[in-house]
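Researcher: Let's do a round of design. I'm pasting the structure tokens now; please hold your answer until I've finished.
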């Protein structure tokens, strides 16, 4: 049984890098919440590699300073952070 993890998809540069990266405080909040979501998924699915159900699809998480989209792939035992959006205020 492997360990659950989270990661940026396709990679960190694409999601939180680029020409106008989000504030570092927002990235820290995203990473903190992604770790929490990952721990919850690990508790719910003790051995995700054997999971045969339908996933939840892309979900939204709100954090101080913005929000992010993520996808939990249980059979991969991974939470993928897909997009980070800073609050316009």
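Researcher: That's everything. Go ahead.
Model: Designed sequence:
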């Amino acid at each position: 049984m492997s360990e659950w993890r989270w990661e940026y998809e396709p990679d960190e540069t694409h999601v939180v890098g680029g020409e106008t990266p989000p504030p570092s405080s927002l990235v820290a909040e995203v990473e903190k919440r992604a770790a929490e979501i990952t721990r919850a998924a690990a508790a719910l699915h003790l051995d995700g590699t054997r999971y045969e159900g339908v996933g939840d699809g892309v979900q939204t998480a709100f954090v101080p300073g913005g929000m992010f989209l993520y996808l939990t792939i249980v059979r991969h035992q991974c939470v993928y952070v897909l997009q980070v959006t800073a609050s316009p205020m």
